[in-house]
Each structure stands twice: as C-alpha cells, then as structure tokens.
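Sequence only, no structure available. Ideas?
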Amino acid sequence: MNDRRAFTLVEAVIVLALTGLLSVVAAVAIGSAMNGVQITSAADKLVSDLRYAQTMASGVGVWYGVSFESGTASRYYIYTTTGTLDTLVDNPGKKGSSFVVELGTDFGVTIATATIEGGSKVEFSPYQVPYTDRTGAALSGEAVITLQKSGAVRTVRITPTAGRIYTQ
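Reply:
I predicted one. Tokens follow.
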C-alpha cells in the first residue's frame, strides 16, 4: 500500500506558480483601480474649485477666474481680477498660501487640454456667468478641461450662459 502524506516537488511548483500569477493579476487590478480613484478625485477637486470661484464671484461681487496650465505643469490658479490686474486668492484650505493646485504633484494627473475660447482661463462674473476674460464676451461654447492618467480620462465641462460645471 502506497500511503502518500506529502506534496511532491511538482505540486509545490504548480502551487507557487499559480500564487505568483494571481498576485500579478491582483497587482495590475489594484493599480488600475488606483488610477481611476486618483483621476476621479482630481476631477472632483477641479469641479469643486471652479464652483468655489463661481460662488465667490457672486458672493463678493468681484470677478473670479481660474487659469490652467496643461502638459507637464498640470496646475491651475484661482484669482480675482480688478481692472487689468489679476491677483491670486488665498486658499481657504491652506491658510497663508495662494490658491494654486498642482494636479501632477497632488494626484499624479495631467491636464491634457484646456479648451476654452480665447485661451486657457475662464472668469466668472458677479452673476456667475462664465467669460473668456473680464473684458471679453461670455462663453459661447462649452469650456472643456481634459484630465488624464495612465489611459484613464475625465473631462470637466463648463456650460455657456448658465455656467453649469460637471464631469464626464
């Protein structure tokens, strides 16, 4: 009678190979999920900050704007504009610092494009209407900011006239 109570070397190698394969699949899935979480968080932050600028414009009665730097810089600034001078506003979340958000550094996300009529900034009037700049006309088409991270893409859109801000 052949009483077998131990694993053979072949069985042990098969178990180790399957464990390794499952670990690789899990790591790829977790990495993919993290990319999705980071780009969604960055898009949510951008929407929140755009709404902040829009709300402050109507609450204070001063034009507020957001200026975008795409590509390797991948950051945006919130500022007020009086006359011809743009002044960075203080960040309410980081007392004593200007409202500059580094999406590349903070989220590992790139601003792929900022498609806004006439440039790379949008300004909100005290009536919450989005403009290309304080001296220009109100937006006639949607402003679209595209965020990207490792193949994942999110867009933030600002509708003309009503100034609705949302993600896709």
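The CA atoms of residues 45 and 101 lie 9 Å apart.
Hope that gets you unstuck.
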